[in-house]
Write a structure and sequence with these properties.
CATH topology: Spore Coat Polysaccharide Biosynthesis Protein SpsA, Chain A
CATH architecture: Alpha-Beta Complex
Strand content: 15-25%
Order of helices and strands: EHEHEHEHEEHEHHH
CATH superfamily: Spore Coat Polysaccharide Biosynthesis Protein SpsA, Chain A
Helix content: 25-40%
Radius of gyration: 16 Å
Largest sheet: 7 strands, mixed
Structural class: alpha/beta
Number of helices: 8
Number of strands: 7
C-alpha cells in the first residue's frame, strides 16, 4: 500500500518554544525548519510513501520543503494542529479519493525511511492505527486506510485519545526514529544520539544541549 503523508508545520517564529533552554529566539526557527526538512527528506525517501503534503502558512518553510519535493497545502482553517491535519487529509483525498493517508509529526529529525516503511506496512493491517512517541504519552504517526477518516486528536496525552477513538496502537520495536520527536533539549539529545539528518546536524552544531 502506498501512502500520502500529511505533515503539519506551524509558523517557524512560533515553533519549538520548549527548546528555550537549548536555543534562543534567533536559533529556534532555524531548528524547527531543519527538523521539518530532515523529516520530509526521509519521508520522501521511504518506499511506502507516494506523496508528502505539508500543511503550513510559513512562506520560508513552504519554499524550502517544496524544494525537497513536498506539496504545500495552505493552512486554510488556521485553527490549530488537528484542524490543519483534517484539512490536509481532505485536500489530499479531494484529488485522490482512494488514497491511504497518515499524519506525521514535523519534528522527527532522526527519521529513517526503512523504519517508517515498517510502521506504515503495519498500519495497513488496520482501518486506523497510530504510533506512540518516545515518551509513550503522545503520538508521532496516525494512519487511516482508504475510506477511513483520519480523526486526528494530537496534543498532550494524544496516545490515550487515539486509542479511545478506536485506532489500533502499533506496538513495534526497532522504530525509534519514528518515535523520537523533539520538544525539549533532552529530546534533541536523544535524537542526536540516534543520528539526525544533515539539516539538523548543521543547525545544531555548537549548541549547548543540557543534560537530562
Amino acid at each position: 500500500m502506498q501512502w500520502t503523508l500529511v505533515i503539519p508545520l506551524k509558523p517557524l517564529t512560533r515553533a519549538k518554544s520548549r527548546l528555550a533552554d537549548t536555543a534562543d529566539d534567533g536559533v529556534r526557527p532555524g531548528l524547527a525548519l531543519a527538523f521539518a526538512q530532515d523529516t520530509v527528506a526521509a519521508a520522501l525517501a521511504c518506499a511506502a510513501v507516494a506523496d508528502v503534503a505539508v500543511v503550513t502558512d510559513d512562506g520560508l518553510a513552504g519554499r524550502e520543503l517544496a524544494a525537497l519535493g513536498a506539496r504545500i497545502v495552505p493552512d486554510a482553517p488556521g485553527s490549530g494542529l488537528n484542524a490543519a491535519l483534517a484539512h490536509g487529509a481532505a485536500v489530499v483525498r479531494e484529488g485522490l479519493p482512494g488514497t491511504a493517508v497518515a499524519a506525521l509529526n514535523a519534528d522527527l529529525p532522526a527519521l529513517r525511511p526503512t523504519e517508517l516503511s515498517r510502521v506504515l506496512e503495519s498500519a495497513a493491517e488496520f482501518p486506523r492505527a497510530f504510533l506512540a512517541d518516545a515518551a509513550a504519552l503522545g503520538t508521532t504517526l496516525l494512519a487511516a486506510t482508504p475510506g477511513r477518516e483520519l480523526q486526528p486528536a494530537f496534543g498532550v496525552g494524544s496516545r490515550s485519545r487515539h486509542r479511545a477513538s478506536g485506532a489500533a496502537e502499533l506496538l513495534l520495536t526497532g522504530v525509534d526514529s519514528v518515535r523520537q520527536d523533539v520538544d525539549t533539549g533532552a529530546d534533541l539529545r536523544a535524537a542526536l544520539a540516534l543520528g539526525v539528518g544533515r539539516y539538523t546536524a548543521a543547525v545544531s552544531a555548537g549548541l549547548l544541549i543540557p543534560e537530562c
